[in-house]
Protein backbone atom coordinates (compact mmCIF):
# COMPACT_ATOMS: atom_id res chain seq x y z
CA UNK A 1 0.00 0.00 0.00
CA UNK A 2 1.48 3.34 -1.00
CA UNK A 3 1.45 6.48 1.16
CA UNK A 4 -1.63 7.99 -0.54
CA UNK A 5 -3.68 4.82 -0.09
CA UNK A 6 -2.56 4.56 3.53
CA UNK A 7 -3.67 8.13 4.20
CA UNK A 8 -7.04 7.59 2.46
CA UNK A 9 -7.60 4.37 4.43
CA UNK A 10 -7.26 6.33 7.67
CA UNK A 11 -10.19 8.58 6.72
CA UNK A 12 -13.73 7.78 7.74
CA UNK A 13 -15.69 5.91 5.06
CA UNK A 14 -18.24 8.71 5.41
CA UNK A 15 -15.57 11.04 4.05
CA UNK A 16 -15.15 8.72 1.05
CA UNK A 17 -18.94 8.82 0.59
CA UNK A 18 -18.95 12.61 0.83
CA UNK A 19 -16.48 12.81 -2.06
CA UNK A 20 -18.13 9.92 -3.92
CA UNK A 21 -21.50 11.67 -3.82
CA UNK A 22 -20.03 14.68 -5.63
CA UNK A 23 -18.07 12.58 -8.14
CA UNK A 24 -21.09 10.42 -9.00
CA UNK A 25 -23.47 13.36 -9.30
CA UNK A 26 -21.06 15.19 -11.60
CA UNK A 27 -20.69 12.05 -13.73
CA UNK A 28 -24.48 11.71 -14.05
CA UNK A 29 -24.94 15.40 -14.85
CA UNK A 30 -22.22 15.38 -17.51
CA UNK A 31 -23.65 12.23 -19.03
CA UNK A 32 -27.15 13.70 -19.21
CA UNK A 33 -25.91 17.01 -20.69
CA UNK A 34 -23.79 15.21 -23.28
CA UNK A 35 -26.46 12.68 -24.26
CA UNK A 36 -29.70 14.64 -24.18
CA UNK A 37 -31.14 17.98 -25.14
CA UNK A 38 -33.02 18.50 -21.90
CA UNK A 39 -33.42 21.89 -20.28
CA UNK A 40 -31.91 22.39 -16.78
CA UNK A 41 -35.12 21.64 -14.85
CA UNK A 42 -35.63 18.39 -16.77
CA UNK A 43 -31.93 17.55 -16.36
CA UNK A 44 -32.37 17.88 -12.60
CA UNK A 45 -35.47 15.67 -12.57
CA UNK A 46 -33.71 13.05 -14.69
CA UNK A 47 -30.54 13.10 -12.59
CA UNK A 48 -32.52 12.40 -9.42
CA UNK A 49 -33.49 9.03 -10.90
CA UNK A 50 -29.81 8.05 -10.72
CA UNK A 51 -28.60 9.75 -7.55
CA UNK A 52 -31.39 8.96 -5.08
CA UNK A 53 -30.56 6.41 -2.39
CA UNK A 54 -32.78 3.62 -3.73
CA UNK A 55 -31.23 3.89 -7.21
CA UNK A 56 -27.68 3.82 -5.83
CA UNK A 57 -28.53 0.83 -3.61
CA UNK A 58 -29.87 -1.01 -6.67
CA UNK A 59 -26.75 -0.15 -8.70
CA UNK A 60 -24.54 -1.48 -5.92
CA UNK A 61 -26.45 -4.79 -5.87
CA UNK A 62 -25.88 -5.17 -9.61
CA UNK A 63 -22.19 -4.26 -9.31
CA UNK A 64 -21.32 -6.52 -6.37
CA UNK A 65 -20.52 -9.61 -8.46
CA UNK A 66 -18.02 -7.57 -10.51
CA UNK A 67 -16.21 -6.01 -7.56
CA UNK A 68 -12.82 -7.17 -6.38
CA UNK A 69 -12.24 -8.44 -2.86
CA UNK A 70 -10.64 -5.09 -1.95
CA UNK A 71 -13.58 -3.15 -3.39
CA UNK A 72 -16.05 -5.32 -1.45
CA UNK A 73 -14.07 -4.59 1.70
CA UNK A 74 -14.40 -0.85 1.00
CA UNK A 75 -18.14 -1.27 0.38
CA UNK A 76 -18.60 -3.18 3.65
CA UNK A 77 -16.63 -0.60 5.61
CA UNK A 78 -18.70 2.24 4.20
CA UNK A 79 -22.00 0.39 4.65
CA UNK A 80 -21.28 -0.51 8.28
CA UNK A 81 -19.99 2.89 9.38
CA UNK A 82 -22.22 4.47 12.00
CA UNK A 83 -24.01 7.41 10.47
CA UNK A 84 -26.17 9.45 12.80
CA UNK A 85 -27.90 11.17 9.91
CA UNK A 86 -31.39 9.78 9.36
CA UNK A 87 -32.58 9.82 5.75
CA UNK A 88 -35.67 11.90 5.02
CA UNK A 89 -36.80 10.31 1.77
CA UNK A 90 -35.12 6.91 1.85
CA UNK A 91 -35.37 3.54 3.49
CA UNK A 92 -32.58 3.10 6.08
CA UNK A 93 -31.29 -0.03 4.31
CA UNK A 94 -31.20 1.74 0.94
CA UNK A 95 -29.45 4.67 2.60
CA UNK A 96 -26.75 2.40 4.06
CA UNK A 97 -26.17 0.78 0.67
CA UNK A 98 -26.12 4.10 -1.16
CA UNK A 99 -23.53 5.32 1.36
CA UNK A 100 -21.52 2.17 0.58
CA UNK A 101 -21.79 2.87 -3.16
CA UNK A 102 -20.72 6.49 -2.71
CA UNK A 103 -17.92 5.33 -0.41
CA UNK A 104 -16.56 3.07 -3.13
CA UNK A 105 -16.77 5.83 -5.75
CA UNK A 106 -15.07 8.29 -3.41
CA UNK A 107 -12.35 5.83 -2.42
CA UNK A 108 -11.51 5.00 -6.04
CA UNK A 109 -11.46 8.69 -6.92
CA UNK A 110 -9.31 9.70 -3.96
CA UNK A 111 -6.80 6.88 -4.52
CA UNK A 112 -6.56 7.90 -8.18
CA UNK A 113 -7.82 4.57 -9.55
CA UNK A 114 -9.27 6.37 -12.56
CA UNK A 115 -9.48 3.42 -14.93
CA UNK A 116 -11.44 1.31 -12.45
CA UNK A 117 -13.61 4.27 -11.48
CA UNK A 118 -14.57 4.83 -15.13
CA UNK A 119 -15.36 1.13 -15.58
CA UNK A 120 -17.71 1.20 -12.61
CA UNK A 121 -19.34 4.51 -13.52
CA UNK A 122 -20.08 3.29 -17.06
CA UNK A 123 -22.00 0.36 -15.56
CA UNK A 124 -24.23 2.78 -13.64
CA UNK A 125 -26.04 4.17 -16.67
SSE order and pairing:
Elements: H1 3-9, H2 13-35, H3 40-51, H4 53-63, H5 69-80, H6 92-110, H7 114-122
Report on the architecture of this protein.
The chain has 125 residues and is mainly alpha-helical. It has a single domain (3-122), classed as Ribonuclease iii, N-terminal Endonuclease Domain, Chain A. The chain contains seven helices and no strands. The radius of gyration is 14 Å and the shape is globular.
| Overall pLDDT | 93
Look at the helices and sheets and give the structural class.
Answer: mainly alpha
What would you give as the CATH superfamily?
A: Ribonuclease III domain
Question: What general outline do the C-alpha atoms trace?
Answer: globular
CATH fold annotation: Ribonuclease iii, N-terminal Endonuclease Domain, Chain A
**What letter string, H or E per element, gives the SSE order?**
HHHHHHH
Strand percentage:
under 5%
Q: What Rg do the Cα atoms give?
A: 14 Å
Low-confidence stretches: none
How many helices does DSSP assign?
Answer: 7
Helical proportion, percent range: over 70%
CATH class: Mainly Alpha
The name of the CATH architecture is: Orthogonal Bundle
Amino acid sequence: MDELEKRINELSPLTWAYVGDAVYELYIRENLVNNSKLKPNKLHIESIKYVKASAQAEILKKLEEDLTEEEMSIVKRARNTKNHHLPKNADVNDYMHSTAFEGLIGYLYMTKQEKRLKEILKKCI
